[in-house]
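Throughout our pipeline, every protein is held as a single compact record rather than as scattered files. The record that follows is passed on verbatim for readers who wish to inspect the format.
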Amino acid sequence: MRQPNRLSKNNKGVTLVEVIAVIAVMSVVMAAVTGFLITGARMSANVSGGATAGMQEQTATEYINKWILECKDPIEAKILKEGSETEYTELHIGGRILTTTDGKVCYNNVELCAGEIYFYEIENNKITYILNGTVHVVHLRIVSEP
């Protein structure tokens, strides 16, 4: 009778060491992939957040210009900015108030966008205002009545 060869390999399965090695390698690969996904998500959120703020500011500018141009009542600046002789913190447009409140640009207490707005040079048929550091000039149309 032949005795089984104790040195022959059994190729029907894997050893515990091989399973642990595969799990370790897969863990490292998954950690790297997860890191890339998280970084990409954060970058995407930062870009879209900046775009949203820029779009809000652009929309606010368009509305402000429209309100100024369509106003039939007197437009006047009120409340001087602290420490300034030429910049105002409120613009009264036909009985409505455009101002900065708690770091937000508001029109009749409705938030238009984040930031600050200041007005100056409300003369010579134009209104100049600064919205978040950008200067905007609105030229008023003077309609002469016959």
